[in-house]
Amino acid sequence: MPGSTCTSALLVRHLAVAVSTSLLLLGACTTAIQIPPTFGAHPSKMSHYSPANGNEKFSCLDGSKSIPWQWVNDDYCDCTDGSDEPGTSACPQGQFHCTNADYKSKDIFSSRVDDRVCDCCDGSDESLHPCPNTCRQLGRMERDKLQKAIETVKKAVELRESLIENAKAAMSRAKTELPKLKDLLLVQEKAVADAQEALSVVVSQKQASENPADAKEIPLTQSQKRVKEGFKSSATEQEQPDVPEDESAHSTTDKILTPTKDVVMASPSMFLTAFQPMMKSVGKVFSTFKSIFFPTEEEKLRSEIGNKSRAVADTKKSIEENEAILEYDWGHDSEFFGLNKKCMIEKFRDYKYEVCLFDKGSQLVNFGVGTSLGTFQGWAELPTKATAWGTTHHRVQQFRNGQYCPALRGSRELDVSFVCQDETRLLEVIEPTPCKYSAIIGTPAVCTQKLVDEIQQEMEF
Amino acid sequence: FSLASIPARPSKQESMRTARLGTLWLGAVVLAFAASSLALKENDFRKCPEASFCRRLRREAPSSGLYSVDPASLTSNGQKTEFVVRHKSSGRPLQASLSLFDGSVRLTVDEAEYTAPHPQTNAPEGWNPDTDGEWTPLPAIQQPLRKRWQATDALAHGFANQVLQHQLVKGFDDHFKVQDDKITITVRFDPFEVLIVKDSIEVARINSRNMMHFEPFYPKDSGVNMFRAEWPELPSDNLWEESFGSHRDTKPFGPSAVGIDIVFPGAKALYGLPERSVSYSLPNTRGAGLEDKQPYRLFNLDVFEYETDHPHPLYGAIPTVVAATPTTGSNAGAMFLNAAEQFVDLEDVQDGKSVHFMAETGVIDLFIFTGPSPKQVSKQIADATGKPFFPPLFSIGYHQCRWNYRDERDVLEVDEKFDEHDIPMDVMWLDIEHTDNKKYMTWDKNLFPDPAGMQRKLAAKGRRMVTIVDPHIKADQGFNLFQEAQEQGLFVRKPDGSGTQEGHCWPGNSAWLDYLNPAARQYWASKFGTYDGATDSLFTWNDMNEPSVFNGPEISMWRDAQHHNGVEHREVHNMYGFYMTEATWDGHRMTHPNRRPFILSRSFFAGSQRSVAIWTGDNTAEWSHLRAAQPMILSVGIAGLPFVGADIGGFFNNPEPELLVRWYQAAAFTPFFRGHAHIETARREPWLFGDDNTRRVREAIRRRYDIMPYLYTLFRIAHEEGTPIMRSLSYEFPHDDSLVAVEATFMLGDSLLVTPVDTPSVGDVQVVLPSHARWFSFPSLKEQSNTGLQQVSAGIDEGIPVFQRGGTVVARRTRARRNTYSMMYDPMTLSIAPTAEGQAQGEIHLDDGQSMAYEQGMFSRVSFDWKDNVLKVKRVTQQNVYNSDVGVERVLVAGVLREPTSVTLTGYAGTEQRSFNYNPDTRVLEIRSVAASLDQSWSLEIKN
User: Fold this and answer.
1) Which of B27, B89, B596, B902 has a CA 20 to 30 Å removed from the CA of B380?
2) Pairing of strands A413-420, A436-443
3) Which of B22-44 are b and which e, b meaning 16 or more Cβ less than 10 Å from the residue's Cβ?
């Protein structure tokens, strides 16, 4: 540019004013570029930009103003909505339409027009900066890519179908099982009640024959009380297998109880014995052995009640499980049913992550225990977003109440989103914000015919 | 960022170890205990009472002077007048010199070469053999025992050659004079005092309060007694050894402090002495009622979570103070050029302000900048310590930083998001995590497998990248930089000189390059040429260069550590970062000879403006820190370094969206404009807080890009004249004594007045509009009819109020672009705000924005002159040397009383009419489609 006597074309572009008059400030070697009013306008709005309709003036699309036709695309912003300059960068609020023949058309901000960066593959956004037309090439590549994607997705759609079928089968099984289980429960509960009735008869007979006053009021120590309460609760409530083992004194007691639970249920007094070293006399030990090998009628009945109560509990658990199968949110078509408790471990950079769907997420370290990123809280609806693996499903699994994070002054959190892939695997875990993790799982569960149609549609350019 | 949180808080440490940085923190684990109390606390950093030299020097002004001039010693060669100043009681001679520069005076005092029997033959008065020991005769005085290190590298290259001829006038009984046609320096013999008068106005008095102090080096074996003999009035503890906290300073050379006082007659306010977070008009530290105050300290430190409104020193130091005297509308300045630790007392005296500089060691090298205008003081500072570098255009755009953008994908996604939201952005930054284990100039190849490709992708959109390059070198034999520097002996050495002084920093065990050593600077510079993965669009961030040493005293280098030629770290401390950035500058220049460097530094000294922009370090996401940014930036600017900014949003913690938005709105009008955040904060890119906030931040950043031609011109003027970009009202209106302490409203250049909103939940803000000027709301150009303190609407959607000063023409670019590269050839809008007399002036600088070709005159300067309803646009520089290919599309004229009948453009080839819109309510005339080139001269006439 040094020493140049001609003003460059770019300047001309920005000086392309009042096209009827001469550009007196420019050298003789330049000519003005006149941009047609329709240039850069969206096809749907093309009619507004045609003086042929007999309009004497151009009306800003927001109706705010009318301006002479030669002020349209004259590289000077007159309309507040930017509609008078569809083909230039003059208006900050404007939009430019790239036709991009052989590829996807695109609307870009006016700020991209003539900014020396090629934004449209047909180069139409840059009148002076060299931009090669790459639309055809891009189109071919995109078609190839989409074709491949369609094949993969089609295959995955079939996988999804089988996921759904499996879920349906499991559900119909559950549906048939449930009434049966409920009937069974009634029978089992009746049996327990009968046995208890029998026991109370035996006990009252025994009490009458022995010395009833003594047996009644044995004062309990603190630990005896705890044991007793523990006994009560395990007899009346469902067992909770997922209670962490180190929960509390209460569950510690449970843990100790567990190996001898049957015996305990059969004979609380014997259990108390085993638990009270003070009372652990030789005689008592002897009587324990005796009761195991030569049970009395009472002991037999207690044992029977225990066994039958356990059966009740088992049935209740099965009922709950089956109800969960039927009532739980496994996705619109129950397509996620097969992924229940599915765990995946992958290493990303320095860390290994484990995600168990419908269950928990954690960061594993080489030494010591892993860091909990949260337990499964439920589904959330989030806007879909484009990722390197495709567009995410609109539903996200949220894991909350992970290990405390000082930076966040709260617990760690994990969001798991899904993209369509032909197998279920953990694709990525990142921590965009401290202690807020986000994982992407590829799975056929989100591969639908709709997705195939969408890709098909994308290919229409 | 600083030593930051990692080792500082065990809880954070825990979170880092378990969830993020894994094994990298082994070193930090070791540190956790020692560093657990790092959040700024009074006791973590030295104050005057903990520094023995400050205890000695900070005393009541002696009633009689300690020094006198030996008249017989006077000599002059017309450029330098030299004379001996004697310590009166001991007779010890000091060598002093005076020289004159254009508008400034330099006084130096150093130890004279001297050998004599010690004059103190008997025990001094008050000597008590019971407590003080037997009096032994003192050895002969031999001086200097050691050459004093001088901070002259801070001076502009070739400054010495700018010395002016002066005249020495002798023959008076009690004084002599040194003078030229403007400045007269009167030096009184006894007590020694220097009086500087310019154009008959008394500018400054040196040592008029008799605070001058100069401790010679003493031999260690008899030094304590010699010291006590010569300074019986001073405490003599901790002369050869001193501790702070758990750190022992061996002080092998003993005491060598220096000090001097300056009085600015008539001064009402003092500014400068960065870096710290206090009000712009520096509060006094001495005087009645201020007994508890500490002197300001100049000592570069990495202060974790620094507090606002606190006098403790931060990352950089410029020992320059500027005095404002509204009665004459004049400014004057003083620089105590010394790189050692300094304390400075400010005090009201009978007729003005007193400044008392005290340094731990070094020489007295005092500059007085005589002004008299604020801009002349800036020019005199720039003459002495160098012109601010002329930055590449991109660097005054918006910078997006975070500790850390994780990987290439993260970087490119953030880049893409800026485009998606149509928010302008020029530079993506990478903090320490991008390296291979904190080995600078390397990449973590897992995270950044193709760094050059990533930079090229950014560059394709006109964006640049900055990577962090710190001065601590990982002590790892497998790291070539460490190994080579070790072999060549380029590291700072242990106090006994026995080997490399190692310490802890980000990589764990580290060594620090001794940038004082020219060979080390050269070596460092050469490394930019072999920086693997660097492209033409990669620039540099020098952090942690105070230097920050996690296990050192006050988180810095040991004072007795050894530099090149046996210089102690204490002598050069405040210039460590300066030397580092000089070397980085050389590296940029060598690697890309035709590219303007851009370097951001945290540490700085006088002269750093020649090579770096700086930011105010690790601030916090609090309203108080937003408020503190203005006085901090103004203080650094008035001291001579104009390219300054504060991290938007606050480095530590998470800003609420309102604070973040207000911060963007304010920072858009500060010289350096960067968003940055600590690794433990939530992501805070502009689009993460809902559509309303995204729009607000977009608007804030666009306002920055809107005034880019004006701003770029300000940087160019700063490069030529040293003028700050961001200025106090008192700088622009020096006669108005009501403005001396105003900092909430400031000027961006001479044309725009800016008032940030720095409190939550407000819809308006108090703006100070200086009287005797017309003010127009910018960019609407509606006139604000009242001046003085005005309540102005400033809702969060409106943004902060900006006013254009009557009498100015501001060049704008109204097209929304994605960065400065994209707007390079956009046409401009001229905003004309006339005075009451209907006049306005302005100018712009145009060039390619990135190369060094401007040094060969490849630029153009265009002036705008509005008068009598005619705008004259004149190309000031020669035609056709550089053509900008830029035109003007729009001219806005404020305060037009009637709708014109016609607007005529006149160029060299004839005249044309231009269409226009007139708004009778706002009285703004918009001349549309002006379509005239800035490579030509032309005029625009409005006819009524």
Assistant:
1) B596
2) parallel
3) eebbebbebbbeebeebeeeeeb
So which residues of B are the catalytic ones?
Answer: 543, 546, 618
Residue A389 has pLDDT above 50, yes or no: yes
Cis peptide before A406 (omega within 30 of 0): no
Q: Among partner residues A90, A405, A431, which is closest to B815 by beta-carbon distance? A: A90
Q: Report whether B69 contacts B189 (CB < 8 A).
A: yes
Low-confidence residues of chain B: pLDDT under 70: 1-42
The C-alpha angle with vertex A426 and arms to A420 and A429, in degrees rounded to 5, equals: 110
Instruction: Note whether A3 contacts B880, CB cutoff 8 Å.
Output: yes
Determine the residue type at B340. Answer: A
Closest C-alpha to A421, from A440, A438, A408 = A440
In a 13 Å sphere around the CA of B63, the CA atoms on its Cβ side amount to 0
Question: Residue B606: which H helix or E strand, with range?
Answer: none
Q: In whole angstroms, what is the distance from residue A323 CA to residue A19 CA?
A: 78
Of A25, A403, A436, the CB nearest to B907: A25
Q: Which of B19, B817, B936 is closest, CB to CB, to A115?
A: B817
Cβ(B606)–Cβ(B335) below 8 Å: yes
β-partners of residue A213 are none
Tell me the per-residue pLDDT of B634-681, one tens digit each, with 9 for 90 and over.
999 999 999 999 999 999 999 999 999 999 999 999 999 999 999 999
| Axis-axis angle for helices A282-293, A268-275 (nearest 10) | 140
Residue B324, phi then psi, degrees to nearest 5: -110, 130
Name which of B317, B364, B360 is nearest B337 in CA terms: B364
Question: Please, which residues bridge with residue B343 across strands?
Answer: B297, B358
Q: How many residues does chain A have?
A: 461
Please list every residue in chain A whose beta carbon sits closer than 8 Å to the beta carbon of residue B12: 406-407
Minimum Cα–Cα distance from B458: chain A residue: A117
Residues 57-116 of A with CB under 8 A from B: 74-78, 89-90, 92, 109-112, 114-116
Considering CB atoms only, which of A2, A14, A405 is closest to B887?
Answer: A14
In this prediction the pTM is: 0.86
CB contact burial B50-80 (16+ within 10 A = b; e otherwise): ebbbbebbbeeeeeebbbbbbbeebebeeeb
Q: Which bin fits A423, alpha (ψ -120 to 50), beta or left (φ > 0)?
A: beta
Interface touch A15/B12, C-beta < 8 Å = no
Helix (H, G, I), strand (E, B) or coil at B214: strand
* CA separation for the pair B789, B222 (Å, rounded): 64
Element at B481 (helix H, strand E): helix B480-487
Contact between B912 and A21 using a beta-carbon 8 Å cutoff: yes
Neighbours of A444 (CB within 10 A): 26
A386 interfaces chain B, CB cutoff of 8 Å: no
Does the distance separating the beta carbons of B462 and A117 come in below 8 Å? yes
Core vs surface per residue B454-481: b (16+ CB within 10 A) or e: bbebbbebbbbbbbbbbbbbbbbeebeb
- pLDDT score for A408: 73
Q: A412 at the B interface (CB within 8 A)?
A: yes
* Rounded Cα distance, B642 and B636, in Å: 7
